[in-house]
Amino acid sequence: MTATVKGPASYFPSIAKKYGRPIAEWKDLIHSSPLTKHMELVNWLKVEHGLGHGHANALVAHTLAEQSGN
Fold this sequence. Notes:
Elements: H1 12-19, H2 23-32, H3 38-49, H4 53-68
Helix pairs in contact: 3-4
């Protein structure tokens, strides 16, 4: 029995499929960005990388939560 993925990570399969990059690559991009605020990063992913708002938000929320240890 597999546990259902919840929260931002539930978007990861569709993000990888739609944009053709593994999630680890998106996280690396977020880590390498000089931006640090949530919405700045979301907007950057939308403008520079063509992500939709929900997908960008999920990636940023998950990545920042990992960085803060939550």
